[in-house]
């Protein structure tokens, strides 16, 4: 009892005088999670470009420094390698997120208010947790049975050409037949191939996510199942074994992630590649919208009471939805990009606000890779961006087309005509002392996420 009281005392003292704020960063493939975290840390350490963060503009952040992360069993976010990749002599995008990682950044801040002169600087620890968006989608499986998940998945697959090979193999199987492990493995492999093809095609609903990023679970029975049509299969059959493995996946993979990592998040960033989704067409837009709405059901949003926080309870208090790659558009279109992300996440945001969480939407570029220019074309002034093309390393000026002024047209499936998205490489940069990497509205994102705690 004495030891328990001591631990509780340490917990109260630590969180009262050196509070910890856990920020989760996720997004689906190609949304830019690694670049976002790297640039955010760099710009909090060197705050010359962070005028939108009130504490930085007021000069109240005395220092920012990296510390050993508190979770010894979680890989450290490799900030040093990532910032070197972005700012080196031959800049390139760092490797994408393939597993969970974490980093602690501590900010020493002078207080504000009437008693500011009587108090010294205090410390706020930011634990930034990076995890694949595909893992987030898995949380929606917790409330589904194998039959429900199979029915919903197979219905979607009927209209997707990427699933042709898997559906053909599925038709050749008898779910009621006795389990033969090689046939089960072949069926699961075909389903995994479909998920990879669907991701390359730009689809968002890619659960189970660990099939795409298996890590140490590769080849295990917990990743060897596939959706099957409904049946009253006997024990020992293919269908019963697939159902058992689906339940094992939820219990042994999804629930531990939720319990050990996700349920401890205070603030959450969801990065969305809106421009890439628009480029892929109306069906991809509808898929992304539905995926974001379903994703939010896992956030357990709402305000956390002080005592509940001290005793270990967590609820997500703020959620920022950020449309990335705003530097791929001229700044005159950024407001339209913001309206689009607001429309895409409207259903998800309303659900979060109803539960007591604060939500925000921004168009950002965590690392600005382009410059802007205007050209006369047939008597019309085209507002363009110039950058280094990712595919051939050549400089090019690019006009992607205009985003719609009314986002409802996109959500209604009307498409965007000839709108195109381009892939740029990071530009070489020379940073002045005190400046972090160039960005678009990263300071406003930081103000939303942590400004109230500074």
TrEMBL record:
InterPro entries: YcjX-like (IPR007413). It holds the Pfam family DUF463. It comes from the Bacteria. This is YcjX family protein. It comes from Seohaeicola zhoushanensis. The lineage of its organism: Bacteria, Pseudomonadati, Pseudomonadota, Alphaproteobacteria, Rhodobacterales.
């Amino acid at each position: 009892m004495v030891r328990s009281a001591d631990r509780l005392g340490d917990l109260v003292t630590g969180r009262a005088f050196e509070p910890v704020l856990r920020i989760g960063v996720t997004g689906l493939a190609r949304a830019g999670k690694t670049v976002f975290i790297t640039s955010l840390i760099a710009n909090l350490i060197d705050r010359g470009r962070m005028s939108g963060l009130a504490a930085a503009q007021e000069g109240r952040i005395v220092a920012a420094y990296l510390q050993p992360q508190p979770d010894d069993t979680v890989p450290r976010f490799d900030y040093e390698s990532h910032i070197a990749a972005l700012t080196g002599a031959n800049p390139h995008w760092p490797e994408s997120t393939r597993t969970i990682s974490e980093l602690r950044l501590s900010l020493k801040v002078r207080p504000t208010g009437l008693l500011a002169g009587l108090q010294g600087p205090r410390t706020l620890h930011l634990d930034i947790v990076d995890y694949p968006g595909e893992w987030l989608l898995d949380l929606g499986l917790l409330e589904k049975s194998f039959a429900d998940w199979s029915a919903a998945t197979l219905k979607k697959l009927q209209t997707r050409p990427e699933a042709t090979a898997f559906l053909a193999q599925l038709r050749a199987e008898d779910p009621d037949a006795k389990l033969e492990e090689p046939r089960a493995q072949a069926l699961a492999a075909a389903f995994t191939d479909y998920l990879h093809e669907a991701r390359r095609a730009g689809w968002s609903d890619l659960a189970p996510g660990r099939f795409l990023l298996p890590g140490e679970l590769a080849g295990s029975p917990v990743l060897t199942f596939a959706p099957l049509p409904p049946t009253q299969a006997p024990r020992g059959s293919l269908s019963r074994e697939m159902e058992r493995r689906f339940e094992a996946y939820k219990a042994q993979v999804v629930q531990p992630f939720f319990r050990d990592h996700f349920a401890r998040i205070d603030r959450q960033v969801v990065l969305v590649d809106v421009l890439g989704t628009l480029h892929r067409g109306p069906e991809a837009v509808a898929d992304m919208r539905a995926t974001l709405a379903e994703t939010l059901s896992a956030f357990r949003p709402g305000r956390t009471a002080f005592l509940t926080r001290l005793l270990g309870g967590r609820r997500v208090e703020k959620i920022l939805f950020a449309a990335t790659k705003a530097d791929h558009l001229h700044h005159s279109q950024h407001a339209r990009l913001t309206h689009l992300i607001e429309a895409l996440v409207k259903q998800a945001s309303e659900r979060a606000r109803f539960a007591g969480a604060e939500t925000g939407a921004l168009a950002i570029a965590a690392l600005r890779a382009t410059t802007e220019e205007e050209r006369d074309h047939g008597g019309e002034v085209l507002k363009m961006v110039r950058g280094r093309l990712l595919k051939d390393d050549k400089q090019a000026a690019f006009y992607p087309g205009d985003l719609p002024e009314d986002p409802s047209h996109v959500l209604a499936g009307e498409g965007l005509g000839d709108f195109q998205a381009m892939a740029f490489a990071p530009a070489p940069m020379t940073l002045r002392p005190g400046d972090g990497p160039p960005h678009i509205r990263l300071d406003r994102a930081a103000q939303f996420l942590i400004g109230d705690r500074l």
